[in-house]
Amino acid sequence: MISKKIIIMSGGSGGHVFPALTIAKFLIKMGWNVNWIGTKNNIEAEIIPKHGIKIHFIEIKGLRNASLKNLIFCPIYILKSFWKVKKIIKNWSPDIILGMGGYVSGPGGIAAWCSKIPFILHEQNKIAGLTNQWLSKISTKNMQAYSGSLKNAELVGNPICENIINIPSPKNRFKNREGPIRVLVVGGSQGASILNTILPEVACLLKEKIIVWHQSGNFEFKKTKKKYKQLGLNSSIIVSFITNIASAYEWADIIICRSGALTVSEISVVGLGAIFIPYPHKDKQQHKNAQELESIGAAKIIDQKYLNTTLIINIINQLNRETLLKMAIQSYSLGIRDSILKISEIIHDTINE
């Protein structure tokens, strides 16, 4: 039997690349042949080849906050990338092309449409990116992680790693759990300076009530660890990056973090109460990602401009394990744990139509 071929287009940030990689690994297990289209200067260039996936590089830059030089050269980049993807399509003859967001999907989506290859889109955020907004008008099918992101899109959630999906439910995790409240602090893979500044002070003032596991990011790791040590918080766990995030989710009673699309999806799949500090994007995309969890009592959202030590302390002082379990159960109720299966079924259905 000849294996099916798919080109996955994704790049720029972990929020785009990791969900796409989860899908790629699943399809490879199912016997698919996967190629990837990305850029040389972003996270996909390092990660994708490590998984034995062939990656083709195109030169393309985003328009948002672009310099004058990039705006001038953008049409040239798009045209060159379009012809490169068209050539890849002609030489490799994929059965389908999947765009997982980021500006890298733009030229490839147009090339797929021109080549009459089935082309499907997945939008990870509540607020769709510009590239996906445009491409959704010419794509064969659209998928979304959050309702209302794209018109005529099927709700499928974000693809989540199996080790996160397999974490026990909140009721099982919280059973017989005692001691200080376990606070997981995650500022994204690069950390968040404001959390690195405030959380050591919070941990010091609440040292009898909480214990902290803090991902600081590489840049401020030494400074953050030193601050915890100076405050005598020797039981706190301070790391630059949490390699096994599933173990951290399973350990935690509550998480304080940004509200990127993948993080919010993972939290609801696990079932975990949260205090979200959205990154202050102009379009408030991270704020929008977290709103549904807040609306059902599973989370609190604090805009970064209002964040301070006293506010965090006041919120945590109102919490106990009974309250945290209720928040976790509410969060768990929104989790889409079969996203990979939903997406793979749409891929199969699209090429068989």
From TrEMBL:
Annotated GO CC locations? plasma membrane
Q: Which UniProt keywords apply?
A: Cell cycle, Cell division, Cell membrane, Cell shape, Cell wall biogenesis/degradation, Glycosyltransferase, Membrane, Peptidoglycan synthesis, Transferase
GO BP terms: carbohydrate metabolic process; cell division; cell wall organization; peptidoglycan biosynthetic process; regulation of cell shape
Q: Which residues bind UDP-N-acetyl-alpha-D-glucosamine?
A: S13, G14, G15, N125, S189, I242, A261, L262, T263, V264, S265, E266, Q286
- List the membrane topology term(s): Peripheral membrane protein
MF terms (GO), sorted A to Z:
UDP-N-acetyl-D-glucosamine:N-acetylmuramoyl-L-alanyl-D-glutamyl-meso-2,6-diaminopimelyl-D-alanyl-D-alanine-diphosphoundecaprenol 4-beta-N-acetylglucosaminlytransferase activity; undecaprenyldiphospho-muramoylpentapeptide beta-N-acetylglucosaminyltransferase activity
Q: Name one Pfam family in it.
A: Glyco_transf_28
Report the EC number(s), separated by commas if there are several: 2.4.1.227
Catalysed reactions, semicolon-separated: di-trans,octa-cis-undecaprenyl diphospho-N-acetyl-alpha-D-muramoyl-L-alanyl-D-glutamyl-meso-2,6-diaminopimeloyl-D-alanyl-D-alanine + UDP-N-acetyl-alpha-D-glucosamine = di-trans,octa-cis-undecaprenyl diphospho-[N-acetyl-alpha-D-glucosaminyl-(1->4)]-N-acetyl-alpha-D-muramoyl-L-alanyl-D-glutamyl-meso-2,6-diaminopimeloyl-D-alanyl-D-alanine + UDP + H(+)
Return the similarity comment.
Answer: Belongs to the glycosyltransferase 28 family. MurG subfamily.
Reported function: Cell wall formation. Catalyzes the transfer of a GlcNAc subunit on undecaprenyl-pyrophosphoryl-MurNAc-pentapeptide (lipid intermediate I) to form undecaprenyl-pyrophosphoryl-MurNAc-(pentapeptide)GlcNAc (lipid intermediate II).
Full protein name: UDP-N-acetylglucosamine--N-acetylmuramyl-(pentapeptide) pyrophosphoryl-undecaprenol N-acetylglucosamine transferase
What is the phylogenetic placement of the source species in the record? Bacteria, Pseudomonadati, Pseudomonadota, Gammaproteobacteria, Enterobacterales
